[in-house]
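Teaching assistant here, posting this on the class forum so everyone can see the example we discussed in section. The complex has two components, and the goal was to see what a joint structure prediction looks like when all of them are supplied at once.
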Amino acid sequence: MTATMDRRQAVKMLLDARDGALVVTGLGSPTYDVHAAGDRDNNYYLWGAMGGAALVGLGLAQAQPEKRVMVITGDGEQLMAFGALATISVARPKNLDLIVLDNQHFGETGMQASHTGRGIAFDKIAAAAGFAETGVISTLDEVAGLTERLRAKAEGPRLFVLKIEAKNLPRSLPPRDATFVKTRFRAHLGLNPS
Amino acid sequence: MSYVPDAGHSTLIRLFGEDPEVITNMLSTEEEGVAIAAGSWLGGKRSVLLMQSSGVGNCINMLSLPVQARMPFLTLVTMRGEWGEFNPWQVPMGQATEASLKAIGLTVLRAETGEDLIDIVESAAAMAYDADQQIAVLLGQRLLGKKKW
């Protein structure tokens, strides 16, 4: 089945319901999607460090246990962090949600096929690793339901795969200055610049 | 603290694990710890990554995150492949460790004796957390002793 869900609408729905959650984005289109929904001080955009998004989220979730942390990344970025699902499952944060925007392709580099179109299912892998909740979302109606579900307290890390249309949308570029975004993010939490 | 274990770090791993004020993460590969450290700092906490020199090669691209974001980063690296090493497979990465870390932009300090170690790690932590630097401390294989087989 070919996915038809619009990634920008899906991400905007998740962010409109973020309720103060801290957000980390995986490089490429997820970074643009989150920026397109509105630049916020409590977003940390990755422009590189492929495979790092979920684990930046883990470190942040452990440092800020009273805040919910939402990582929004792509299937290609998460594929590079396969072992991260084991590390996160063992760490068992109760405030970390991973959202994998899955278009089954490496969109940024020419739409080459990725593993997720060939049988690799992150929801099943995360469930097998011991995540508290996992699921696959294919429609915007289901995203609305997911926003409700994410409001409920978690027993452990959660991972949801959003099957989205494989389409390169116009880029929406956040600041590339990682130091500026870091300082802005930390100031949002009341932390000093350094 | 996050780690991929090494015999040279075993006491430190145990001490951190017993400390109720420290969150310990065991990693499936070393570069995970670089990303966790970045997240910790975004959230206002300090951290340290423990690994063996063979793990440094796994970390190189991920180190672009603390380097580019100018985030404090501290790693303690136990050396293999440089002193009385019997396993030839440890030598290429052991010999490339310092050059690789410097190439990606880290500052590298070395401890060769137990006396130096405490001073050097204190100094490294100050450079990382007071001066926003990315620091690796290499613990020489001569200090750690040859691996017994």
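For the discussion questions: DSSP finds eight helices and eight strands in chain A. The CA atoms of residues 30 and 73 of chain A lie 5 Å apart. Think about how each of these relates to the inputs above.
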